[in-house]
What does this fold into?
Amino acid sequence: MAEADDPFERRHLDDPYPFYAYLRTQPSDLIEIPERGVFVAARHDVARAVLRDHTTYRSGLGVQWIPVDQAGIRATFIENDPPVHTRVRRAVQKWCTPRAMADMVDVVDGIVEEIFDGLVATGGGEVMSTLARRVPLRVMSEWLGLDLPDAAATWADASFRLGAPEPPEASAEHFAGFLEWALGDGFASVRTNGFAEAILSGGDDERLHDDERFVALASIIIAGLDTTVHLIGNGVAALAANPDQLASLIDDPSGRAPAAVEEILRFDAPVRFFLRRTDDGRSVVVLFGSANRDERVFEAPHRFVIDRDTSAHLAFGSGIHLCLGAPLARIEGASVFRTLAERVCSIEVLRGAERTDSAAIRGFAALPVRLTAR
Ligand code: HEM
It folds into this structure.
């Protein structure tokens, strides 16, 4: 392949979809990108098959750009294969079922209402800082039982960038801020009887070993922030660009918000990729955003339509590593987009909107909007 044929090039980041569409026309299932030393899974059937064959396509060798043996740190859930993965996931599963997380609905709604009060009163603003970063930060603090400082959103962004090709130099420095906080006051001040305290005590039946507990909590914090941040930002942008779909959501905010969240995840998957590695040395990059726009599975995939069948989307992955926090992300998304539709009749994106240049995450760095109250 020519040098231009590289999905991680800066010029493809703002709008990766034309290049993804080109990749899906290639005859091979796994497409080689020689200059990166990797293969990519771009079609839906291939991406799903790779994710579900966890024996051939392993996570334990590393799902980030840098393999686990060079990174020096192993993310507890996402970078283990069975049987270790089965054990660590069981250690936290009971706190993460949709039923266990249903207790969070009222908490999330309270946080979202309060944030929207300010946002609607000012007629909008820069929604990444006023809404998208604030909701997950406050929700995760409540759910875990620890106070995440505002800087946590920057730490999560840095952590994802460190998992992608050519991370900016500042990322390592930002991520060091997280470790300093966690090893200092951060984890030391977890609240009694909270989920964070349970993880640091080993989780259910103390299944987490002593040397896994710190990274397990860190993994959940990092995974739960930047992802949901961009679900919210991408959703605001998609609804602004598709006023007919906003109108449809306004017709029935409670009824249609959960479906709108799934379509936002399909249309603009926040996580661009994770890798799998094989015992014979191949690295496979699974492109979630490409699978979600596969015309073989989704009719008119480039159209944003909130009442379409999205059940096959891969934004939360598939198989044994299916996102642990998906129930919480869905509660947060449904609350945000229901409240938005109850309080706002139009969204206008203003000058200054800018996509993030993170090669790991698809979202916005800044998204100034004007909101008209209903
Ligand atoms: C819209 C928001 C989110 C998106 C798009 C997302 C995306 C993903 C994806 C694609 C995976 C699969 C990784 C793989 O197969 O290698 C995953 C796994 C994971 N996610 Fe999420 N995530 C979101 C929210 C959350 C939240 C809120 C949490 C925590 C509260 C969380 C915690 C995790 C963990 C711990 C894993 C690893 C699970 C395992 O390996 O068994 N995520 N997520």
Q: What stands out?
A: The two ends are 52 Å apart (CA to CA). The first helix runs from residue 10 to 13. The first strand starts at residue 30 and ends at 33. Residues 51, 59, 63, 77-78, 89, 219-220, 223-224, 227-228, 231, 270-271, 274, 288, 315-317, 321, 323-325, 328-329 surround protoporphyrin IX containing FE (CB under 6 Å).
